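Memo to structure team: turn this sequence into structure tokens by end of day. - J.P.
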Amino acid sequence: MFSNTGNVPAKLIKEFAKKNKKPVFKAAFVEECAYIGENQLDALIDIKSKEELIGGIITLLQSPMKNVVSALQSGGQTISGVLKTLEQRNA
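Reply from structure team:
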């Protein structure tokens, strides 16, 4: 199988293998890494796609911004309120 996403064929093979004995996973080559043997199928399934990785990075970058905005909104727009809210969240 050929795919632009490394883990999709592995997921299909695992789902197909639940009901059928053949074909059996032998090996895969994904992003300069070789996965050989059926015991590597789960490792191949766990690989994140490019879109999943980008989404995770964006989520991590947005978290601090959301905390500051939330603190500003709940603190009554005052510095002491913001500091108090941030202190309570970190505790």
